[in-house]
Amino acid sequence: MTTTILLVDDHPVVREGYRRLLERQPGLSVIAEADTAAEAYRLYKAHAPALVILDLSLPGPSGIEAIRHIRQWDRQARILVFTMRQGAALAAKAFEAGAAGYVTKASPPRELVEAVGTVMRGARAMSADIARALAEAEVARGRSALDGLSPREVEILALAAAGATSKAIAEALCLSLKTVHNNLSLIKAKLGARTDAHLVWIAAGAGLVALPGVGQPPP
Asked: Per the record's keyword annotation, is Amino-acid biosynthesis included, yes or no (predicted)?
């Protein structure tokens, strides 16, 4: 099946580059392009694409407004933000408005392609820099991210964040593979981790693992 895409960016040359990148991937087809939030809304209603990829910096109403309007029209709309704008606050606003993914233009091209696949599978996608920014923002709020976890869940999280595979965790803790998978899913849900990278940064912020550039949370 072909995934139809609406591209929203106010720079025609940039849109052409995205189109070429995306249409080199099997099963992806750009069927419409817009350069404003209003045009994005109109074209979404006219073409009903499977996915919208949009920038947040648009003339007139912002990409955040485009996300809100499209999602008001169609609660099932899948929208992936692809923008130069970085930072946890803006990413959080985009997700709050209904975005299913947030990738910065500083990311390698493969991250955009991978994010398309992730969003189309019904999961939330983020580039590594955004996952890190959101995790650090949570740490900065001063709460202990691990308060809601059981001792066993903390053990599993520490091993996973250190790079251990599910099989290795199962062997180390004398658990079944299914139990490890179930616990990892529950840990992600409890911590609000959107990706594996986000989970690692939460663990690092809580002091379970050491990663460059991540400090300890306040006492």
From this structure: no
